[in-house]
Amino acid sequence: IISDTTMTTTRPFRLTDLFKFNNVNLDSLTETYVMPFYMQYLARWPEYFLATRAAGSERLTGYVMGKAEGLGEDWHGHVTAVTVSPEYRRLGYAKNLMKFLEDVTEHVHNGYFVDLYVRASNDVAIGMYKKMGYSVYRRVLGYYSGEEDAFDMRKALPRDIHKKSIIPLSHPVRYTAGRDD
């Protein structure tokens, strides 16, 4: 797939991409995980992994990874990571990657909503997600290394006819160890 705006291509994320994504991952706002974490996701939810790269190149410009989880009306897609290399930001790549994940959640997994966690201090990302239809569902205290809060943001999908999934909680929740987003 070639993007109309800046001549980038998208393709399924490959295991070998784990050796090529430092230019995308190494900034203060991107959560970086250990290799087995990425491999587990790629093996279990390959349909949720997509990479973007500069046209005519193997250089990654961004990627998205996620999963399907929950039970009943809590069945949803979760954005574990969406990130774009700093020199390619504000060009619509993240929006396209998010749309991909939303489409997989809606059409492959028939989910009720998509959720993600974002640093409460990351105003740029929060603004982008709000423009894409996400809203803050709850504040999670100490989510990032016990030091920084996160917003759990959600976007209802067509299956959630009454938009129950995005009714915000009136109080923050405290993060407890064991997260595996």
- Rg computed from alpha carbons, rounded to a whole number of angstroms: 16 Å
For the record, give the distance between the C-alpha atoms at the N and C termini, rounded to a whole number. Answer: 28 Å
Q: Determine the strand fraction and express it as a percent band.
A: 25-35%
The largest beta-sheet arranges its strands as 1-2-3-4-5-7-6-8
Helical amount among residues, as a percent range?
10-25%
CATH topology value = Aminopeptidase
Secondary-structure arrangement, i.e. CATH architecture: 3-Layer(aba) Sandwich
Q: What number of domains?
A: 1
Question: What's the CATH superfamily, by name?
Answer: Gcn5-related N-acetyltransferase (GNAT)
